[in-house]
Amino acid sequence: MLLLDVLKTIASWFSPGFMLGLVLVPSVINQRKSAVSTIAWVLALLAIPYLGVLIYLTIGDSRFKRRLRRRRRAKDALGPRLAEFEGAGACGPEELAGLPELSRSLCQLTQAAGSFAMTRHNRVRILDGGQEKFPALMKAIEEARAHIHLEYYIFEADETGAHIRDLLTERARQGVQVRVLWDAVGSYSVATGFFDGLEAVGGKAASFLPLRLTRRRFEVNFRNHRKIAVIDGRVGFCGGMNIGDEYRGWNCTPWRDVHLEVEGPSVRHLQETFAEDWFFATGEELINEAYFPAVRRPGDELVQILISGPDQDRSSIHEVLFAAIAQARERVLVMTPYFVPDESLLMALSTTARRGVDVRLLLPSHSDQTLALFAGRSFYEGLLEAGVRIFEHSGGILHGKVMSVDRHFAIVGTANMDERSFFLNFEVNALLYSTAQASRIEALVREDMDRGQEITLAAFKRRPYRVRLAENACRLLSPLL
User: Is CATH 3.10.150.10 the right assignment for the domain spanning 65-91+124-296?
Assistant: First the structure.
């Protein structure tokens, strides 16, 4: 019997499913992912015949090279013309010299990573939840005179989505140029024909990386996770909220999120980001003065727009988060809905807490992504032992992506604290170099922490064995999430 079992095992190694997985192993290795991620994918391919291959081809294979080259050609084509608009309002050495050491270091790191320069003379309004974001966005759309550009990961075909679509259609009918870009995976509910009325009156709508099996274009990775709105090149919006009823709290579950309304030179960088994404998706070039009007100076805020994506050589958002946490001297407050950090960020959080810095995380108590929730909790024990304080948000879905450091620096944007946001998605964050704004972000996070539940090490260790097992099993999948 033993010999028979051995022969069966050897035979299984040469099964079609196993051989197909084996053929894909070199592809996994050549992607040069982290060692943990590579091993996880190899095990999935070999241990789960057919299913492992299907999952890998759907979400694991970085088959973006051809489109990546097209994306870079698009950036290269627009680059020289964008350069003439980019420098307006950029901060000089005197503004950098007057910043706190942390802010100056992060600004220099961000520019070295190839992102936009920090700009002065901005006005920033922090929008606390959908009850503030949607009225502000709709008011800006209603007051538009020249153009409206919207770019969203999720544009739901629900009451809110239909209302904004109809509002855009009316503005297009009145002669305003309207362009809407949505992600093909995130906005899967946008059925064919949803924007027909808008297009019939001259508006334009397009999807980012559409899924087309007939053309071998089925890419679940490399999604456009950005949320950008630019009105007349003068008012911009960015942050965590998509377009849909749930972000307004119109369903049974309250939705906790944060967004920004920006006026001033940094709007040009949001416009430039939209122009690059639109050109990549449609081939239409938007580089002229009509979309980049003369810079106004509505305020005195220092803002830097930070973008990242698989078309960049460096993961700039990941680098900035790591550096900000590692250089903190007083406190770090983080709000994130999907917490699946890599080893470098775990080390930064732990060592910063051990240095005596007040490090606090606000994470969800329940989530629309159960695997990510359980994987995130598998990191709790080590962080708590290092002195990190962890709070779980209660009373709804946590979706905000913000961080405040030492009350000098804050981030509001689209990037979650997970490997998908750092290395696979197209993201955009706004960096705020203002004590007033950083303090406001800190106050928002503290209020939510006060309403949430703090997780203590002693209580967390008492969780049932089956829960620990589930968390650690999901942690094995963290490089795939």
Answer: no
Determine the Cα–Cα distance for residues 181 and 205; give it in Å rounded to an integer.
Answer: 6
Q: Which amino acid is at 375?
A: A
pLDDT at 393: 94
Catalytic residue among 183, 232, 257, 342: 232
| Sign of the four-CA dihedral 101, 431, 341, 365 | positive
pLDDT digits (tens, 9 = 90+) for 22-39: 766 676 666 656 665 676
Q: Is 225 a catalytic residue?
A: yes
Q: How many Cβ atoms from other residues are within 10 Å of residue 47's Cβ?
A: 11
Instruction: Write the CATH number of the domain with boundaries 316-480.
Output: 3.30.870.10
Q: Is 232 a catalytic residue?
A: yes
More confident residue, 230 or 41: 230
Specify whether 277 is catalytic. no
Task: Give start-end residues of each CATH 3.30.870.10 domain in the chain.
Answer: 65-91+124-296, 316-480
Q: Where on the phi/psi map is residue 472: left (φ > 0), alpha (ψ -120 to 50), or beta? A: alpha
Catalytic residue among 33, 133, 227, 408: 227
Residues with Cβ within 8 Å of residue 336, at least 6 apart in sequence: 361, 362, 363, 400, 401, 416, 417
Of 149, 318, 401, 408, which one is the catalytic site residue?
401
pTM summary value: 0.85
Q: Is 401 one of the catalytic residues?
A: yes
In the prediction, which pLDDT does 216 show?
A: 46
Answer whether residue 191 shows pLDDT above 90. Answer: no
